[in-house]
Amino acid sequence: MQYIKKNDTPPTEWENWFKTGLGKRSFDYGNDYSSLRNLGSAKKFLIEEQHGLCAYCQQQITLDNSSIEHVIAKEHNKELSTNYYNLVVVCKTPPKDIHTGKLHCDKERGSKLIPPLIFVSNSDVNHSKNNAYFDAYADGTIVAKPNLEDVHKKQAEVFIDVLNLNHQNLKDKRAKDVLGGLITAYSSISKYQKDKNSFWQIQFDRILKNQKYPFRQFLLIYIAKRLGK
Ligand SMILES: [Zn+2]
């Protein structure tokens, strides 16, 4: 649920990164994945493009704990399997949810289609023209924003459901690791409303500036709500 800004053109080396040892352009067309010796360069490029965050859940990712993901799965469109605009990087090997046994991100969605909310619609909450699709709660839950038009609400719900973005681990991390620290700091400051508002404004500005902040979109939505934005 992050907005990923793709370049107007693919990087100049893009095609080379997807060539096999025989010079054939290939990625997931057959069993030659391991022969793509330059695939790591593509992955590195995509991770930087996403500021080191999973395209779906916004956990921090590295070269080692991530994998390249086809937004439109190759089962639906083989021709897009090396297309720069169809590839993102996502977190790898999530544990099973202790309640439901489900995974999250690409491991949960398999080849299901997902609404394209990572490129066009996952709004920057600081931009008044954009319509935020998601709402965020203190317990780490993400839901579709209640006042959306039906078509957009459905898109947000499908996005959350197919990728299982309310996996217990993700909720815990959002609530405890990132928001918990802020709420603790908030509760220890002056009781004066003015100070409390400025506290959240400072946090909002700080996170907005830092594109590498884990669960950034979740936090921005949560804080914007507190600020009445
Ligand atoms: Zn993820």
Q: Please, could you describe this protein's structure?
A:
- The protein has 229 residues and is mainly alpha-helical.
- 38% of the residues lie in helices and 7% in strands.
- It is built from eight helices and four strands.
- The chain has a two-stranded antiparallel ribbon with strand order 1-2. Strands 3-4 form a two-stranded antiparallel sheet.
- It starts with 13 loop residues before the first helix and ends with a helix.
- Bound molecules: zinc ion (ZN).
Structure at a glance:
The protein is mostly helical.
Hey, roughly how much beta strand do the residues contain? 5-15%
**Shape label:** globular
Largest sheet entry: 2 strands, antiparallel
Helical proportion, percent range: 25-40%
Descriptive key words:
two-stranded antiparallel sheet, globular, binds zinc ion, mainly alpha, 229 residues, 38% helix
Strand and helix layout:
Blueprint (H helix, E strand, L loop, with lengths): L13 H4 L21 H11 L16 E5 L16 E5 L14 H4 L7 H5 L12 E3 L5 E3 L5 H14 L4 H20 L5 H17 L6 H11 L3
Antiparallel strand pairs: 1-2, 3-4
Helix pairs in contact: 7-8
Bound molecules: zinc ion.
Zinc ion binds next to β2.
